[in-house]
Amino acid sequence: MEYNGIAHCSIKRCIIIVGCVTFFLFVNINITTANENIDGTIENENIITEGGGGGGGGIVIENMERGDEIGNIAVDDSIQEELKDIENAGIRESDVRVESESIVTDEDVNSGTNDVSEEIPPVIIPEDMQLTQLDPVEVGYVRQMELEPGKFYDVKTIGSKPPIFDKNELLDLSETRKALAPLDGLNLMFDDTFRHFVDIVLDLDSDRLLSALEFRRIPLIMSKVTDWIEKHHDVDSLGDDVKSRMKSGPDRISHQVWINHNEYDAQEVLRNRLIKLTGLHPDIIKTSEQLQVVHYTPGGHYHAHHDSTQIIDGRPCAHTSYLYPHDPHSHLLSSRVCRYITVLYYLADTEEGGETAFPAADNETFSEQSYVKDNKTVEPRDLTSHCKDANLYLQPHHRMAVMWYNHHLDRERGWLGDRNLFAFHGGCDVIKGEKWIANNWITVDDNYEMQMLLHYKRIHEPQQVVLNIPPADVTEVTKDPTSNEGTLTRNDDVIEGINQSDDESSQGHHEL
Ligand SMILES: O=C(O)CCC(=O)C(=O)O
Ligand SMILES: [Fe+2]
Fold first, then answer.
1. Higher pLDDT, 96 or 378
2. Of all atoms in ligand 1, which is nearest to the CA of residue 342?
């Protein structure tokens, strides 16, 4: 696909900016204290884990001090020191960035020490790259859309906050599902011991301590952490957040695999329909994440979470962060998932349960208060207990798809706005039968220049483009990572791909 001239100009400027003084890199030592509450506020003194891979979720360990330990999970000294320095200087952590290897703050910038802001003209986003959003009009509204020449689909609004649409018969992906069925059981993440994860997967720098950054990788193996904490600790002494997380069990019980972009012809058809459906520039669809297929059996669920991380200064998007001209590994620990849209395909009927729930959808008075029902406080995140307390829930139906916007649209710029708090969602427990879904996340960097750099690279240096960057906490591990080589991209494959970013044959690289 040819790149258009206007965007080229912008890319050139982007590269100049990258090369010159005006490009802010982010602080890698960041302890990510941004706890994404469901109301979007950020708690600063907690160490949090944040979801991803399949979305958000996470746990909060309240007020951890240096030296605090959970088993061999200890709060890393250097991070505490960094935080203290920042705190003492009266500067919020999110205000700190690294510019040309030296730490600068917004204060420096404002006081002229590193006065670069004036040199950056506002970015004019060319019209064909601008983001759009389908107008929900109102719940129940149905629009006919021609997603393939001569083929019309009913697209129905089922939520307006966030805009949520469903469509029947969007694509029959059952062939894909059948092909994947034998993989059930291959993902042996839960069969490994927790120690294995601490030593090999989580303790990235092998210092026998789990730093806060490393700690962020935990949520997907939460059940093991919970078991461990229960066995070794006085549970009563833990913070309320931790206790509530432990009560609601693992955030997620499911198996998931990623499918290379070109694995099935159906994927090309699907991409073309999504270009029509979303009205987005084809390159945005083509550089988005690969399809993730998820399988749940009875008891399987995914507690409510956000698929996209809140925009936080200083943390780049995972899908572009490796393009920053600095340490290619750092993004693994400090990036965000930036998913403008979620398209979720149901690949099978589920006999009972397994609803996709949106606890906050169209809740006009959305706040923590709104979850007090019958004089009882409801923990909306816990979909095992509160599936049907959600404002909107959908029963999985084969061939149905649901799409929603995880971010608002900044209409003035035509680019990504804040995260939409109402997009909080999850998968309820499967009670009977199985649940098969596929996630198609449309990734967009709030930093337009970085998104353009990605498109530029896809055309001009495709070997450098990785289309399935795992967010920081993706820790899926298989016992035999070489099996099915060439057909499936699992997260650990991709991590390898990044670590060997000069190796073009690496599995993490996919050309379109
Ligand atoms: O299982 C579902 O219905 C929702 C899944 C989901 O939210 C996710 O994979 O991010
Ligand atoms: Fe999700």
1. 378
2. 10
